[in-house]
Specification:
Elements lengths: L17 E2 L2 E3 L2 E3 L6 E5 L7 E6 L3 H18 L4 H17 L1 H12 L3 H21 L7 E3 L5 E8 L3 E5 L7 H12 L3 E5 L5 H14 L6 E3 L4 H10 L5 E5 L2 H12 L4 E5 L4 E5 L5 H13 L9 E7 H16 L19 H17 L2 E4 L18 E4 L6 H4 L6 E7 L2 H8 L4 E2 L3 E3 L3 H10 L6 E2 L15 E2 L11 H5 L2 E8 L13
Parallel strand pairs: 1-5, 8-9, 8-11, 9-10, 11-12, 13-14, 13-19, 14-17, 16-17, 19-20
Antiparallel strand pairs: 2-3, 4-5, 6-7, 7-22, 15-16, 18-21
Helix pairs in contact: 1-7, 2-4, 2-6, 3-4, 4-5, 9-10
């Protein structure tokens, strides 16, 4: 396939693309740099989504100062009133769900049923935030002294810097911004440069739902010019980042030097184990969905299929036949199974890993090439790819590819399967297919991962459950569920002494 080249026309069909802006201090505005960049559809490079600001540290500083000022009043709004905003936010997203999803598919590439799911995850997160507004529980405990009460409250922290990826441009910003705001913090939001339009739509709806204008700010631009200044800004109190482990380490170092609270949700190299007694039809469906959903561009994607020897050859043959039937194309086309990679660099990364796999001696079962179909001529498409004969120490078995490449490893028994599953630096998601309840419970205990599915794919988070991993996948915090509200708030301990005397704790009263 000839590489797509940037179009000289304004957009598909020659229409003038929309000019997007930052939202800082309650106003939509250009960057002080005056510079912009074009965002193109990965399915059709001739389709320009819009132009976006190339912002810098001066824009960041203005946004942070606005958020700091807004924090003084936003933190005092009763949590239940903040929660009502997120009930309205959920209602608004339901109303506009299909429009949001269609624009997300155009911007990011994944098929419509997936962007509908991405949007629904944000809707669920909004309604969950509405419920949690009345559940920001503290503890009341007995005092060691008479006529004295002990309790804890959850308090807002300050200005939250949110840096989000392109693969879930609605759900992940919702995972971060909704709890941050619900807890009484204000937000400065840097979305991924590949999916800024979806981020703008989220902010527009937050404002329509009733979030005070200064309390949420969005700045477009690069990690170097916007992300780093946001992380290092002295008036930013906490950082929440989703992305690569390499970038996460750098963020942790920069933020740690300033004692900021930091949540990192990073990479994955997720295994799906299939034992001899597993349901092969179900395991096949899960592997296809886990490996090639979102074109493999998920931190939870099934990157390794670990199969016990007794069913290995049969399942690989089933996998080959099913994978070859998958159709690449525009995600808005109902006939499409797999969309494009998000950009040229991502497509080239996938291509380089396929070459690495071949050089390492893995057997190419199917795929392994760009898709040259007519519907793929102007986008960043790569055929879903399966390697067999992969050994645990090969790079394609250990490194995150973030594309539609599945490595199949053969093992002799359950114990070897667990050892192979754990033989990576990451520990996000995992799954096992077996009918043996004892092995299922051993897998729950022994797989080194933050998430384990029994007889399910490695992908598919639910908004009310904690999401995150171990090892190089993160730094111990979790997105989602009740735990993310613990990250975006801090505990204040209160002592109320109504004895009328000065009672001294932490001395020997005995």
């Amino acid at each position: 396939m000839n590489s797509p080249t940037p179009s000289t026309s304004a957009a598909a069909g020659g229409a003038t693309p929309r000019k997007f802006q930052n939202f800082i201090a309650g106003k939509w505005c250009d960057s002080v740099t005056g510079e912009t960049y074009e965002n193109h559809s990965p399915a059709n490079w001739k389709d320009i989504i819009g132009t976006f600001p190339r912002s810098n540290e001066e824009d960041v500083d203005r946004a942070v100062k606005a958020a700091r000022k807004a924090f003084k009043t936003w933190r005092l709004v009763p949590a239940a009133d903040r929660g009502n905003i997120f009930q309205r936010m959920g209602d608004l997203m339901v109303k506009h769900k299909e429009d949001i999803a269609r624009e997300m598919t155009r911007e990011m590439g994944k098929v419509l049923k997936e962007t509908m799911g991405d949007t629904q995850e944000a809707i669920d997160t909004a309604y969950y935030a509405f419920g949690e507004s009345r559940r920001l529980f503290g503890h009341t405990v007995p005092s060691e002294l008479p006529n004295k009460n002990c309790m804890t409250f959850r308090m807002p922290i300050g200005v939250a810097g949110l840096i989000t990826p392109w693969n879930f441009p609605s759900a992940i910003p919702a995972w971060k911004s909704f709890p941050a705001l619900l807890c009484g913090n204000t937000v400065v939001f840097k979305p991924a440069s590949d999916t800024p339009a979806t981020a703008v739509r989220l902010v527009e709806l937050l404002l329509e739902a009733g979030v005070p204008p200064d309390a949420v700010n969005i700045i477009h631009g690069s990690g170097r010019k916007v992300g780093i200044p946001l992380i290092e800004h002295p008036e930013v109190d906490l950082i929440s980042f989703t992305g690569s482990s390499e970038v996460g380490r750098d963020i942790s170092s920069r933020a740690g030097a300033r004692l900021k609270r930091v949540s990192l949700e990073l990479g994955g190299k997720n295994p799906q184990i299939v034992l001899d007694d597993g349901n092969l039809d179900l395991a096949l469906e899960a592997a296809l969905w886990g490996a090639f959903g979102t074109t493999g561009q998920r931190c939870t994607a099934t990157s390794r299929l670990i199969i016990q020897a007794g069913v290995h050859d049969k399942l690989v043959d089933m996998l080959k036949n099913a994978t070859n039937k998958l159709r690449c194309g525009d995600g808005l086309d109902p006939k499409t199974d797999v969309g494009p990679l998000v950009n040229e660099a991502q497509r080239d990364t996938v291509e380089s890993y396929v070459k690495i796999g071949l050089d390492e001696g893995a057997k190419l079962v199917c795929g392994g090439e760009r898709d040259t179909s007519p519907q793929c001529a102007n986008g960043w498409f790569y055929r879903p790819t399966v390697f067999a004969g992969v050994t645990p120490e090969m790079r394609i078995a250990k490194e995150e590819i973030f594309g539609p490449v599945l490595s199949v490893l053969k093992v002799k028994d359950f114990d070897e399967a667990i050892a192979v599953a754990n033989n990576v630096d990451y520990g996000l998601s995992s799954s096992i297919f077996t009918q043996d309840v004892n092995r299922a419970f051993r897998a729950m205990r022994d797989i080194e991962a933050g998430i384990t599915y029994i007889n399910g794919a490695t992908i598919g988070a639910e908004c009310h459950m904690p999401f995150g991993g171990v090892k190089d996948t993160g730094n111990g915090h979790r997105e989602g569920g009740w735990t993310v509200y613990e990250f975006f708030s801090e505990i204040k301990t209160i002592y109320v002494d109504f004895s009328g005397t000065l009672q001294k704790a932490q001395i020997d009263n005995y």
